């Protein structure tokens, strides 16, 4: 039996997002978000579910922080709901919204847990969407103004900021594939939204530096490892296009100030053009302190004409699958972070989300024996250790998610939590995976 020890300063954490857990959607001056609107569109979300109550963490945050403290994490990644701070996106500031996050941040610090705040985890104020949302460049200015309020309000308390969570989802999943809010299906719109979010990220980093805000700032991209089913060039090219849509399309502007030429040309052939204005690429490629990577899966693909946007067909090769029907491919985490390090240099990396959805059952004694999820975490922890030993600057890992919660278009039927949420009583029950992670953190590693 081998022992895998993690560095003493490795950051173990867990993560959540505001709309998925907070509830209290009309309390204390909060404005409507695009998810409040989208979840009310018939057929948009499974079972017509919404985040009106969610896990009620708005009222139960102390209970949730107690669970974090018991877990033993060093840090907690949460997101701030823009509509709580500016109900209309701009204009009058809602102090009650700020006060809520002050209470959360103070309670985290008191518990010895570092707050890591995501500024945008998809809940755009509906008032801004009514004016074009992220397709309107004015939204960039509104976001930077909102970020400035947060930086000043939490100076010295929040020491790590993430500007955007998963820009691919904000843009293409939501505006080209139409699966998430606001539910549009337009390639050009997805390209435009992606670019404007990237510019907003860069402008926010510039502001962070200008203000002299203490701490670190970065962004989070959801990276996906996809490789050719064969060595045929057409299969390699097709797999690269699908992978680059998630990876290079966002990483290259972040670190190199360019978009991948082959994908730009592919989009142009389909009528999609990146709306770059002078200075945009320089703004996007502002130096960041770390890169967050959300990782869940990977796979194999081969060329098939007219298959999706990229003439690429996914080929199943016998992976186990989660209840999201995603491949369980732990080695892909090693592959994609090794690639990112090789391509983009020594910027510190955090796995800002990683986890799995399974069909959990609460026993009579209020336990959840989630063997598959525990195994999933174990296998991914091993890959994290491989990365560190290989010289990749992996500094931390945030399990997704602390709680079962509103899983976007899947409603409440898909559970990612290491803590079971009873949606009728709102009681929380730690699962076996929670206790497994607790043991890994306490012991500083794992036996394999």
UniProtKB/TrEMBL annotation:
MF annotations from Gene Ontology: beta-glucosidase activity
Which EC number(s) does the record attach to this protein? 3.2.1.21
By its UniProt entry, which PROSITE patterns does this protein fall under? GLYCOSYL_HYDROL_F1_1, GLYCOSYL_HYDROL_F1_2
Active-site residue numbers: 353 (nucleophile)
Q: Which reaction does it catalyse?
A: Hydrolysis of terminal, non-reducing beta-D-glucosyl residues with release of beta-D-glucose
Q: What Pfam family is a match for this entry? A: Glyco_hydro_1
Top-level EC class, please? hydrolase
What family is it from?
Answer: Belongs to the glycosyl hydrolase 1 family.
Q: What is this protein called?
A: Beta-glucosidase
